[in-house]
Amino acid sequence: MTISEPKGIRGGEILRGKDLPAAQSADRPHPARDLSLLGVAAPLPAGVREVQALKLLHDLKSRFRALIVYLDTCTKCGACIEACHWYLGTNDPYNVPAARVDLMRGVYKKHFTPGGRLFGRLAGARELTGDMLELWYKYFYQCNECRRCAYFCPFGIDTAEVTIAARQILTQIGMVPAGIMSVAKNMRQSGNNMGIPEKAIRNIASFMEGELKQKTGKDIPIPVDREGAEVLHIPSSSEFYVTLDTLEGTAIMFYAAGTSWTLSSRIIETANFGLFFDHAAMKAHNNLLFEEARRLRVKRIVAGECGHGWRTWRMFSSRLSPATSDIPVVHTIDESLKYLEQGRIRFDRSANPQPVTLHDPCNMARAAGYVEQPRRVLGAVAGQFIEMYPNREKNFCCAGGSGQVTMDEMALLKARAGLVKAQQVKATGARWLVAPCAICKAELPRLMEHYGLDVEVHGLQDLVGYAAVL
């Protein structure tokens, strides 16, 4: 494999995006009206919601010491300014990570610190008013929780954790984006974000088996609810409608390695949107994963291409689902590398001759340490790999993370926030952009189109399937 270094993105051509309809220029997500999933009839009224929000903040600060450390520790050094793609793309001062955290920090100081009570504004204290909650809703949903600011912060202040805390409070007073709530309802009702019913899951799996027969000449199965298989694979539901090559690539991988596997009709979603807005929803989804692993009597779970879903399974399962977290959960990248190292699968790099670059998903690279593993797979399946700059833990977000992929009403703002990513990709000269994350694969094609870049977006498993020797 040839590895090339691109030119830097600084000082290069300024990309110009296309015009978008006014309906896609909102600066905040449309609020959900149906809150039945949360067990409430409507958002709390003014006056009541401020009181409840303070109670919830008091509860969070009492239970999560890290949150108080982040609120108590900031010298306004400015290290996070250049780290945030949202600020670089919008030039909105509230999108400076330190300023965004100040929206909660000021309230914390006013209501929970002696200095804030005594000196008020002089100490940076601010009242929790209805207007302040509106600012929380606007700007904590203009944060992708990408953690790039935390990587560069000399004190390690993690804005994403503050964002998660603020969103948890907003959820419990009824201020939830309609897009995120819709996905959460689909997940609760059908076991996947797109609301695909069981019959359709089986029909689409059968259709893909036919496609694989035409492409490869082999009878490559995509089994559903097969008990006693070695592996339960949890893909993204988007692989049943939009990114079919990713699931087909995984099926080819299992077939080539001789591994028995199955899907579950009850959960075909590795993504876990509960991480973005509600702890209870996150726990329910996580529990379902392990319930299905037990029901189908598999030996291990292989998670599909979703950054935040993988982070949830990998890092939170022991706390969310302690009774069943002894069932191993690995990533498709790990599975590919194992088969490669054991000699159970061979690849032909010439099957992917296009210049390829890699987008490091935030929740895989910065949050879970997956930086070299995808590069090792690319080294086996791609003919020419071009690193974008910056990369690995320093890479920029796709601008669709933390649920923003569902917020089409904010398309113009998201495109501006994604300008740095588009410049990164353009500087490589690559024709294929590989992103092993479902949200990234949904957001990046929109970004490429917006800035007029002739670049195809693929999952890493797509290339595994294309290059596997059968």
Structure commentary:
It is globular, with a radius of gyration of 22 Å. The chain has helices spanning 48-63, 65-72, 85-90, 97-112, 114-119, 130-140, 148-152, 159-172, 178-190, 198-216, 244-257, 274-277, 279-296, 307-320, 332-341, 362-365, 372-381, 411-417, 419-428, 438-450, 460-467; strands spanning 2-4, 231-234, 261-262, 300-303, 329-331, 355-358, 384-386, 432-434, 456-458. The protein is of the alpha/beta class and 470 residues long. The relative contact order is 0.14. The strands form 2 sheets. Strands 1-7-6-8-9 form a 5-stranded parallel sheet, sandwiched between helices. A 4-stranded parallel sheet has the order 3-2-4-5. The protein has 21 helices and 9 strands. Helix 2 (65-72) crosses helix 8 (159-172) and helix 11 crosses helix 21.
Could you list some keywords that capture this structure?
Fumarate Reductase Iron-sulfur Protein, Chain B, domain 2; Rossmann fold; 3 domains
